[in-house]
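Batch manifest, entry 17 of 40.
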Amino acid sequence: MSLVNTVRNTLVPVHKEGYRFIAIFFVVSLVLGLLWEPLMWLGFLLTAWCAYFFRDPERMTPIDDDLVISPADGRVSSIAVMTPPDELGLGSTPMLRISVFMNVFNCHVNRAPMSGTVRRIAYRAGKFVNAELDKASHENERNGLVIETKHGEIGVVQIAGLVARRILCWTAQNASLEAGERFGLIRFGSRLDVFLPEGAEPRVSVGQTAVAGETVLAEFGSAKGPVVSRRA
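Output type: structure tokens
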């Protein structure tokens, strides 16, 4: 039984949005195998990657209304003070923006950075430039949420990238979200921007790896100031 439990605990669940893609990859692999056997094994490798891409692991989220939790797995690509996108309706006053870039090997399930009520959901069509570029925040296809929290309204923006062509969001206006709760997914590479009001201090550095639902991006009500990091 211990071996069974070990295997069960090691295997990561696959999100239901990935089932049909995994099936398509698998069937195409079989068809390619009829043409040339090495293509079938290459297809099986890609099928395994597809299952890995759509993994949906459980996460342990800190319970603290003063903490801002990463909404995505990936690399912190930017920490800056920027004006939020117009469609969020958060005004023209610059806000702290923390961006997390997801490559094709990261888990792409998106989670709420703070507990609160969804006051606005705004989709905007756009380009598909590299999501790592700063201009992607305003030029790319995106879907934004405004969440009313204990510390005011925050913005969470799902941004499509070069490969990403589909943004999924399954929460709704006036819905309640808990910090770390799943609210969406972006298929095949993208970025998440979090816009925070005055009083939030970053707790990560550019280049740091973030884990959705676990890594603390920022904190409210602390006098410690921004985090200082060193490369080890």
